[in-house]
Amino acid sequence: MFSLTRSAVARASSRAFSTTPSRSTDMAKLVLIGRLGKEPEVRYTKTNKEYVSYTIATSNNTPTAEGVQPTTTWHHVLSFNPGANNYLRTLRRGSLVYAETNFELRQPDPNADPESPEGQRQIFLRHEQIRVLRQPPRDKEETESE
């Protein structure tokens, strides 16, 4: 019995550090925790496919000569999932969210104008999942109208 267990463990441990080539489905994920900068917008591709674009603002503290300077980074996320798009439409500006995105870095087109988006390195964040951690405070106008 022990010899069977030992051989199974030996096989499993030899696979843990395999030198086989990586899978073609490797991906990069980015997890964001921040606030929605504006209401998600419904847009359409050139082929008339609907998608939702939303922006998440994250805050960082950057060290400077004078001390620590707070900075805001804006992350633009695209969602092509119809089920998620219906939910995204209901979110409000200022909501604190946890979002998981796929991260894709596209290199510039060498034949494009360096000032155009195609001539610059582009980062695409594709929506995977979002959770609202905290709703934004209600405006006075909204509470008065109810």
Q: Helix and strand layout, with pairings?
A:
Blueprint: H1 2-16, E1 29-36, E2 41-44, E3 50-64, E4 67-79, H2 82-88, E5 96-106, E6 122-134, H3 140-145
Parallel strand pairs: 4-6
Antiparallel strand pairs: 1-3, 1-5, 2-3, 3-4, 5-6
Kindly describe this structure:
This protein is an alpha+beta fold. It has helices spanning 2-16, 82-88, 140-145; strands spanning 29-36, 41-44, 50-64, 67-79, 96-106, 122-134. It has a five-stranded mixed β-barrel with strand order 1-3-4-6-5.
N-to-C series of helices and strands: HEEEEHEEH
Q: From the alpha carbons, calculate the radius of gyration and give it in angstroms.
A: 22 Å
Tally of DSSP helical segments:
3
Structural class: alpha+beta
Which percent range describes the beta-strand content? 35-45%
**Bulk shape:** globular
Spell out the key features of this protein.
146 residues, alpha+beta, five-stranded mixed β-barrel, 19% helix
Briefly say what this structure is.
The chain is an alpha+beta fold and 146 residues long. 19% of the residues lie in helices and 44% in strands.
